[in-house]
Structures are given as C-alpha cells and as structure tokens.
Amino acid sequence: MAEVGIGMYTLADAAQLIHGDRRAIRRWLYGYDYTQRKGEASVTRHSPPLWIPQYAEDEFDEKVIGFHDLLELRIVKEFVQSGVPLRVVRHCMDVARQIFGVEYPFTHRRFATDGETIFSEAVRSGDAEDEGMLNLRTRQYAFREIIKDSLYLGIEYDDGYARRWYPEKRSKAVVVDPERQFGHPVLEESGVPTASIYATFLAESRDRAAVAHLFDIPASQVTAAVRFEEKLRAVA
C-alpha cells in the first residue's frame, strides 16, 4: 500500500509529467542488458539502475515510483537530452550523493546552486579511459546550460529537500504534491485532481460553466485544469 507523502506514479504517468520517454525511464530506473563485442565474441553486460526507486519493483502489479523519483528523472532527462552520456550522469550522481549524503542529489537545494562545481569534479575524477569523460573535457561542456535556474523554478523546498512542484511556468494554479492525492496533479486552491476535472469537462461537452458548478469552483480553475491536462496529452 502506498504511504501518504511519498506519491505514486506509473511509468506512463511519469513520462507524461516530465515530457520524457517511458522506455528510457524504465532503463534508468531498473537497468538493462546490452551486448558488447570483444574480438570475435559477443558479451552480454548489465547496466544497473541509476538509483533504487522509492517503491520496490515487485511491490505492485506494475512498476510505480515516488515523488522524489519523478523529480530526479526530470533532471536526468535534461542531462541526456543535452548530450551528456549516461555513464557521466551516473558518475555525477554518485559524486553528488557522496558530497550531500542524500539519495536524491539532483533535486536537492544544494545541487541547484553547487551543481556546476560538482559536475566539474565528477568529470575530473572520471576514468581517463572513459570516452564520455574525455569528450566532455575536450569540449569544455557548458554545464550551466543544463542546470539553469528555470529548471528549478516551480520546485518548493523544505530544509533543502523538494516538497512540491508547480509544473506550469509562471503559475501556481496546479501543484504536484506527494501529500495530496498521492502526488497526482491537483488544483492548488481547491485540491481537486486536474484529471477529474478534465474527464468531467469532456463528459459535459466541454462546458466550463457546468464543470465549475459541479465542482463548486471558479471557472478560471476549470480553465487552468483543462489547459494543463491538454498539454499532458499533447506530449503523451
């Protein structure tokens, strides 16, 4: 059973919320096997997960993750989309984890400010034989282009730890909070899940006034929920 305050998301939920690829998320969180050529022979190797998710892999009928997993995935996705090899992401995460003493270092408040220094340290301390590390040194990778202030906008912290996330830019109408509705998006003011509002909106022939009346909320909140849910579906 899910614990209150952890949040609960399927991999499909996570892919929608961070605008990521479900297959990549599965590989990052649960590892994968790959084949490597060694002379004339092929060797099967296993790449372990980047970290152990908040829920055990076999705890439910399908794989689910927690709130901190979700936000950490969001940062990993930015690294990978910016061309950072996954082995470099892994090493950077390990270095940050050791320095901060936390399991989820990328979304820790200190990483938002010290990330560039940590990334540089991770690259310097990497295996000299690692092509990914060497390429980053040669190219003088601009880490600041990945960890921008905008990447952390919307995340609210408590004692350095991410506690809730407002996924809409320049808006606090919708919040992802593990303390509310198991972390699924809700309207900040009323606490109504945006998915419930959107389903009702479709059932009521897209009549915003009717939905506002049914949920006893302002029409502006219906508009915010519908806009958010339609954005999710556009990237699904």
Overview of the molecule:
By secondary structure, the protein is α+β, with helices and mostly antiparallel strands. The chain has three domains: 1-81, no CATH class; 83-152, no CATH class; 164-236, no CATH class. The protein is 47% helix and 13% strand. The protein has ten helices and eight strands. It has helices at residues 11-18, 22-30, 67-81, 86-100, 109-124, 131-139, 149-152, 194-203, 208-215, 219-235, and strands at residues 9-10, 32-38, 41-47, 64-65, 155-158, 161-165, 174-175, 186-187. It has a two-stranded antiparallel ribbon with strand order 1-4. α8 (194-203) packs across α10 (219-235) and α9 crosses α10. The chain is globular. The two termini are 27 Å apart.
Write the layout of secondary structure elements.
Elements: E1 9-10, H1 11-18, H2 22-30, E2 32-38, E3 41-47, E4 64-65, H3 67-81, H4 86-100, H5 109-124, H6 131-139, H7 149-152, E5 155-158, E6 161-165, E7 174-175, E8 186-187, H8 194-203, H9 208-215, H10 219-235
Antiparallel strand pairs: 1-4, 2-3, 5-6, 7-8
Helix pairs in contact: 4-5, 8-10, 9-10
Q: Quick recap of the structure?
A:
The protein is an alpha+beta fold and 236 residues long. It has helices at 11-18, 22-30, 67-81, 86-100, 109-124, 131-139, 149-152, 194-203, 208-215, 219-235; strands at 9-10, 32-38, 41-47, 64-65, 155-158, 161-165, 174-175, 186-187. The protein has ten helices and eight strands.
